[in-house]
Write a structure and sequence with these properties.
three-stranded antiparallel β-sheet, single chain, mainly alpha, 262 residues
């Protein structure tokens, strides 16, 4: 790890030295850096790097471009200072390896989510939720936002899915804690942003039902059913259909034990 030089990819790529952003050059050069950072110190063959950044039909002068961007990154690292702790981009004989560097915000996210999972498994849902929120706050936009290339486009989709899964798990925990009305507001926004995401719709239905709004929960289902039919020519999946049926028959197990005892 490069002491004092921080790399972030949970949003637009940036490098920080003592809180000051380090210039990293033009977008394609930044894409080269992002791809190499994602190798986590593993060497990347030249052909694989070209395919990752330029795709299957690179320009005829791609070798010159790759060398130009590697040289540009080396100059950026040298200008940032830091001596022996600075990142190094080395040629391995068949490709490139980025040394003394890591994706710091991604590493911090992993640590927070490990701690959140441990807290959840031990029954401390409040701490688990707080840690998950802290992990969410590391995001500044889309993963490697604005950088082109097939490799980063694939990573962007993958991380968007992982981000949503963490959000859904955190909201499930909030519902278990009885934060129904708070969850409704956030889930309405999330469903509007991801209207075909059935797990989010199910969480919204449950939050509405537990907030004493069963009619709105059923309307949320009908809205989702209509969207799926119009956009996907499909019906809701079995989990969402089952939840709808349980709300229709006012299944008492949908309510928390505290509500049943009152």
């Amino acid at each position: 790890m490069a002491e004092g030089l921080r790399f972030e990819l949970l949003g637009p790529l940036r490098a920080l030295r003592d809180g000051t952003e380090v210039p990293l050059g033009p977008p394609r050069q930044r894409a080269v850096l992002a791809v190499l950072l994602l190798q986590e110190g593993r060497p990347m063959a030249y052909d694989a790097l070209v395919s990752a950044v330029w795709g299957g039909e690179p320009p005829s002068h791609v070798r010159n471009l790759a060398q130009k961007y590697v040289s540009g990154l080396r100059r950026a690292f040298a200008a940032a200072g830091g001596g022996g702790s600075s990142p190094e981009l080395v040629w391995t004989g068949s490709g490139y390896r980025l040394e003394n560097a890591r994706i710091d915000d991604l590493a911090e996210r992993r640590t927070l989510l490990r701690e959140a999972l441990s807290a959840r498994e031990s029954g401390d849902l409040r701490r688990a939720g707080a840690l998950a929120r802290e992990a969410e706050e590391l995001w500044r936009g889309e993963f490697a936002e604005g950088l082109a290339g097939p490799y980063l486009a694939g990573e962007r989709r993958r991380w968007a899915e992982k981000r949503l899964m963490v959000l859904e798990t955190r909201l499930e925990g909030d519902l278990e804690l009885g934060l129904y009305r708070e969850c409704v507001h956030e889930l309405v926004r999330q469903v509007a942003e991801h209207p075909l995401r059935e797990r989010l719709v199910g969480l919204l239905m449950l939050a509405l039902y537990r907030s004493g709004r069963p009619s709105d929960a059923l309307l949320a289902y009908e809205d989702a059913r209509r969207r799926l039919s119009e956009e996907m020519a499909a019906e809701p999946g079995p989990a969402l259909r089952e939840l709808h049926a349980r709300i229709m028959r006012q299944d008492p197990s949908l309510l928390p034990e505290s509500a049943l005892a009152s």
